[in-house]
Amino acid sequence: MSMAEYNEKGSIKETSFGYAMSVIGGKWKLLILYLLAEQEPVRFNEMKRQIGPITYKMLSSQLKELEADGMIKRQEYPQVPPKVEYSLTSKAEELLPVLEQLCEWGDQNRK
Q1: C-beta separation of 24 from 58 below 8 A
Q2: How far apart are CA 43 and CA 24, in angstroms?
Q3: Domain 3-106's class?
Q4: pTM, 2 dp
Q5: Would the keyword Ribosomal protein turn up in this protein's UniProt record (predicted)?
Q6: pLDDT greater than 70 at residue 1
Q7: SS3 label, residue 77
Q8: What are the start-end ranges of the E strands in 44-82?
């Protein structure tokens, strides 16, 4: 975010940074994207098991938001019991270098 953009818009929410945070911000979205980047496609229950303390309702809500923002694809298979898999879109894949940089930062600073 440039200061010029911030000064022009008058609100952080109106900037490119504000948009990015609206798409990936919060407690769970980056975790979900990271999990999908590591092992897509992933089924709902497997995602819930790997993330741990997230509730089913919250996971469902976060997945719906990520899908609405064009970050993940939901593939439903017509079978009993229902099978649904999630994977990254090309828009989300553009974010992978940023996630990699976060991982590198974590490696350097967690000791």
Answers
A1: no
A2: 20
A3: mainly alpha
A4: 0.85
A5: no
A6: no
A7: strand
A8: 72-77
Query: Domain coordinates of the chain in residue numbers?
Result: 3-106
Which residues, at least 6 apart from 59, have a Cβ–Cβ distance to it below 8 Å?
A: 28, 32, 44, 47, 48, 51
> For residue 34, what are the contacts with CB-CB under 8 A and spacing of at least 6?
99
Distance separating alpha carbons of residues 20 and 35, to the nearest angstrom: 19
Pairwise CA distance, residues 98 & 104, whole Å: 10
Rounded CA-CA distance 78/106 in Å is 41
Distance, CA of 51 to CA of 62 (rounded, Å) = 13
Summarised one tens digit per residue, pLDDT across range 68-84 is 999 999 999 999 888 99
